[in-house]
Amino acid sequence: MSLSEGVDLLRQGLVTGIAGLMAGGEEDTETTQATFITFNQDTTCVAVGTTSGYSLYTLNSTDALEPVYQSDEPDVYIAERLFSSSLVAVVSNSDPRTLRVCHFKKGTEICRYSYGDRVRAVRMNRSRLVVCLEESLYIHNIRDMKVIHTIRDTPPNPSGLISLSCDNTHCYLAYPGHSHTGELQIFDTINLASRVIIPAHEGQLAALHFSPHGTRIATASEKGTVIRVFSTHDGSKLYELRRGLKRTASIYSLSFSPCGSFLACSSNTETIHVFKLDEKLKETAVLAGSPPSDDGWFGYINTMVSASAGYLPSQVTDTLLQGRAFASVHHNQTGTKTLCALAMIQKSLRLLICNEEGFLLMYSLDTEEGGDCSLIKQFKLVESPTVLLQNEIVETSDAPTNQGNYFFKNEETFPGGLFLLNNADVAITYSDKLRNRTTNEMTESEKFHEMAAAAETPPTTCFLLDDDGEFPPVAFKAS
Fold first, then answer.
1. Strand (E) positions, 313-453?
2. How far apart are CA 150 and CA 405, in angstroms?
3. Rg value, the chain, Cα
């Protein structure tokens, strides 16, 4: 073998080895990515799925994520939890036309329904459960899971773009009403009638989200430059918020804060925007979504624009009068699909950002001054629950490994419900022994009771003794 042949052989070996290492790294990256990440109705829990299963975590602390439940069922692409109850709606790629409602604390399947097409999305509140197919919508009564209404021949909706209000009084369903324009349909799921039709955008809709009380809905189109907020009462436009002037973007998510005064938006750009929806600003005809200012250049420009509205072109006036971001986050994950949410954690408003790689970033949000948000912590959801803070990795708790591991803390419990702590083995209760039952299988009446109990609204005036964030009442001895 000549020297040149030896050099060529060595070069080929190096190229093959480097390619193999790169391919192996890509495979490792793919296995650790999240297949889906969703928040529950009141942003107190996050669900994350991988090809090997899914997990639920509670969002009640800035120090660590509390694991609730982990399942080893593979290929799950929908896992929607009903508030903080034990009910979760599950759909897997192995049977994409079947919805299963499970009680994960007891490890029992409550019911299952099959449909004529692939399930695209599932949304639920304490009154209704809505299943979205590509061209139809099924509305279930959540107490007995009976189909009470079907909306057929809807415009093609392959992405499953729908939104369901979590309020029982304004229990509305929103979905696209046209295949080419941004027409929005609002449907009353209690009275089973169309509420209002809103011509929200010229282009197709890309994101929808109801306010906590269901009185407003935020929308964005595929162009992604303008976000609009409409009234669900009469369809009137309340706010028009501008994400950018020239740069179009794909809007991935919209999220109202629990108080309804802030709206967060994530896209394929490197910026997460937070808008402030101030009623005083709307009433006084100043810029919606901007900090109040009576003096200075901002107030002067706003006054001049309002006074000259009749002389300027309508497009110029509309652009100048659109609200700007109140706060923002700049990250380096351009092009990665991100999901944002606003949550009350330890009595402070936090901005949560999740991405396809399975990271959850938690930011502080100054509700008075706005500006740039500060990173509090970063969590890795698809591996062991570890927390990353300023390039330091701090171990929190070991990840569950077996199927059906339960971690219960600060969760709603049902009357007569089984309460397991870090135990994958199903316990047999005294009532089961009396009925000669050796498993945790529930009867039909017990299943109905669990569904009805989960649909009950928790009282708001009592002490939440299972909440570690609150001190229990102290009794003083009378002197």
1. 327-330, 338-345, 348-355, 359-364, 371-372, 374-380, 386-389, 392-395, 405-406
2. 36
3. 25
Q: Which two tokens stand for residue 254?
A: 């919209």
Neighbours of 218 (CB within 10 A): 26
For the stretch 268-271, contacts whose Cβ atoms lie closer than 8 Å and that sit 24 or more positions apart, written own/partner, are 268/334, 268/335, 268/336, 268/337, 268/338, 269/244, 269/334, 270/330, 270/331, 270/332, 270/333, 270/334, 271/328, 271/329, 271/330, 271/331
Half-sphere exposure of 150 (CA within 13 A, CB side): 9
Residues 385/64, Cβ–Cβ less than 8 Å: yes
Residue type at position 106: K
- Those residues whose C-beta lies under 8 Å from the C-beta of residue 228, and which sit 6 or more positions away, are 200, 201, 218, 219, 220, 237, 239, 240, 241
Single-letter amino acid, residue 264: A
CB-based burial of residue 24 (10 Å sphere; 0-12 exposed, 13-18 middle, 19+ buried)? exposed
Per-residue confidence (pLDDT) for residue 363, from 0 to 100: 97
| Cβ 142 vs Cβ 126: under 8 Å | yes
DSSP H or E stretch at residue 27? helix 3-32
Give the pTM: 0.74
Q: For the sheet with 136-141, list strands across it.
A: 121-124, 128-132, 136-141, 146-152
How many whole angstroms separate alpha carbon 98 and alpha carbon 116?
9
What is the pLDDT, as a whole number, of residue 450? Answer: 75
| CB proximity list for 377: less than 8 A, separation 6 or greater | 62, 63, 361, 362, 387, 388, 389
pLDDT in tens, 176-222: 999 999 999 999 999 999 999 999 999 999 999 999 999 999 999 99
Q: Establish how many alpha carbons lie within 13 A of residue 434's alpha carbon, considering only the half-sphere containing its beta carbon.
A: 3
- State which residues of the chain have pLDDT below 70: 1-32, 244-246, 279-323, 335, 384-441, 448, 458-479
Residues in CB range of 272: below 8 A, 6 or more apart? 264, 265, 266, 328, 329, 331, 338, 340, 351, 353
